[in-house]
Specification:
This is MOSC domain-containing protein. One of its GO terms (biological process) is DNA damage response. One of its GO terms (molecular function) is catalytic activity. With 239 residues, the protein is an alpha+beta fold. 29% of the residues lie in helices and 38% in strands. The strands form two sheets. It has a five-stranded antiparallel beta sheet with strand order 4-5-3-6-8. It has a four-stranded antiparallel beta sheet with strand order 1-2-9-7. Strand 4 and strand 5 form a beta hairpin.
């Protein structure tokens, strides 16, 4: 293979060549070397609108009587869960229940009881109105947006086809540039790569909006979904 042939490859092409010299007799026995192998990488991405709103709220009480505190939190949660389950298109999940001691100057001064609830919906307007109502009794811990499983699967399926097609075109290009007639696919790995949106933690003075008359204004935003294909091809010798 001449240097002029290699120089014809596009500079933007991500190619790692492994064209190895014949094995030396001094090399350890049992080693397997692969000749004319080329590592390739391709990807496809798309900007996808977040279509699922997720909110976490909690009830927390402090005092000297754990039993009384538990009853109070349970009543608040019973009302909240009942109200949320009565709304169409909203998923409800109760989270961790915690009872913890409160110490001041190494002395036990009371107890803290806390329980959280997770609400999720693809109807952000409905959930926004519910949040406005629940915040009269519960505190808002975090809000985040995500891509629904159905939407993610649909987009990733399309991106997978695009990434594979890009890989095949790149493999064809490399094969022709090296003067070979064909290549053999040795291995390929296809995986999704994206950064989930982190929940937005609410400041303490924004947690309780008791008496608020309007639902919170929320912006869904978007995420970049990416499918990456990384593999190895073997350039076939002319026949």
């Amino acid at each position: 293979m001449s240097k002029s042939t290699i120089q014809k490859l596009p500079a933007s092409l991500l190619v790692c060549l492994s064209l190895m010299a014949p094995q030396s007799p001094l090399q350890a026995e049992g080693q397997t070397h692969h000749y004319d192998h080329v590592k390739l990488h391709s990807s496809a991405s798309a900007e996808v609108e977040n279509d699922t709103l997720i909110a976490v709220l909690y009830a927390q009480k402090e005092g000297s009587d754990p039993g009384s505190l538990t009853d109070s939190v349970n009543r608040l949660f019973s009302q909240a869960v009942s109200e949320a389950k009565g709304r169409e298109g909203i998923k409800v999940q109760t989270l961790g229940y915690q009872t913890s001691p409160i110490y001041r100057q190494q002395s036990l001064t009371g107890w803290r009881v806390r329980q959280s609830i997770r609400l999720q919906s693809t109807h952000s307007d409905r959930l926004s109105k519910l949040l406005n109502q629940l915040q009269s009794t519960l505190a808002l811990d975090s809000i985040s947006y995500a891509i629904s499983p159905a939407q993610r699967e649909k987009v990733e399926e399309s991106l997978t086809l695009q990434a594979i097609e890009a890989f095949r075109k790149r493999a064809d290009l490399v094969t022709k540039q090296f003067g070979r007639n064909a290549y053999r696919l040795v291995e390929i790995s296809i995986q999704a790569s994206d950064r989930p949106v982190q929940p937005l933690r609410m400041r303490a003075n924004m947690m309780a909006l008791e008496g608020a008359s309007a639902a919170p204004t929320l912006a869904a935003g978007s995420q970049t979904l990416r499918i990456e294909a990384t593999g190895t091809i073997e350039l076939q010798l002319d026949r």
